[in-house]
Design brief:
alpha/beta; Metallo-beta-lactamase, Chain A; 7-stranded mixed beta sheet; 6-stranded mixed beta sheet; 21% helix
């Protein structure tokens, strides 16, 4: 079975067509049917789908990689463009209020970065939410990984990213961070949202759960832009360890890290901007 993966929303545009770039991510997976991972901020999704010849009505399901606005902001425009219900897979903690604490030199400013629409508003527009937890099969060829296994005491290196817990603000544990494992004719493909749980931990957890010792491709956001240098080295080593043949990091990876990946993996690296297509 052939698999086609198309980048619909991302921070940059690959083609000269009138596509829209935005800080966010949305990726279309076409196999026997069609799956959408994330919706970007909501600025470019419907425009880019139209230009690329993709019809929202044909999509069988939506999966949300986590609860940040740049991955979920397009949910309402997407639902409104369909005018019919659709299963939406998300971890329960994706709906928690998420904030960023921006340093100002004194007290940090707290900025909301969670979902722009409420769960009730999305359900009214046609979202039929289905919870995902741990490692869960979505279709015969797509599985979702959340609640990624991490070392005891693990914390995100991006200390700006928080979650509201009642009146308290806590470090976001990113249990909702969801990556997809897609079975293709070329081999297993890993599709990342932002890899807030850590790309190394995600690949290790997928390998432990499935027995795969190689991944054909890794595509998506890696959130390595703010990672410590030693963790970037671990990420490079993990991609080598799993003999990844196609590395298309994007979105929250950061320009300098993407350049590093292009140098480390000159034959494996690919651009994953809006309009990029990967076929397996």
């Amino acid at each position: 079975m052939k698999t086609k993966i198309t980048v619909l929303c991302e921070n940059s545009v690959l083609t000269p067509f009138p596509l829209i770039a935005e800080h966010g991510l949305a990726v279309l997976i076409e196999q026997d049917d069609i799956t959408l991972l994330d919706t970007g901020q909501g600025l470019g999704l419907i425009n880019n789908m139209k230009i690329l010849g993709k019809d929202p009505v044909t999509i069988a399901r939506l999966i949300l990689s986590h609860g940040h606005y740049d991955h979920t902001g397009g949910v309402m425009p997407f639902l409104q463009a369909r005018e019919r219900a659709i299963p939406v897979f998300a971890h329960r903690s994706a709906f928690m209020p998420k904030v960023a604490q921006i340093p100002t030199g004194a007290d940090p400013i707290e900025v909301p970065i969670g979902m722009r629409a409420t769960r009730e508003e999305m359900e009214k527009a046609g979202a039929e939410f289905r919870p995902i937890a741990g490692f869960q099969k979505i279709t015969d060829t797509i599985a979702a990984l959340t609640e990624v296994k991490r070392p005891e005491g693990w914390k995100t290196w991006d200390v700006r990213l928080k979650q509201k817990d009642g009146d308290s603000t806590i470090d976001d544990p990113f249990n909702d961070d969801c990556s997809l494992l897609i079975i293709t004719d070329s081999g297993p493909v890993v599709l990342l949202g932002c890899a807030h749980a850590g790309i190394v931990e995600i690949l290790d957890d997928l390998s432990a759960r499935t027995g795969y010792r190689e991944f054909h491709a890794v595509i998506g956001g890696t959130h390595l832009e703010t990672a410590p240098a030693e963790y970037v080295e671990k990420a490079v080593a993990a991609l080598k360890k799993y003999r990844v043949k196609k590395i298309a990091v994007s979105h929250c990876t950061g320009f300098s890290i993407a350049c590093r990946m292009a140098r480390e993996f000159p034959s494996e690296f690919a651009n994953a901007s809006v309009g990029a297509i990967f076929e397996f």
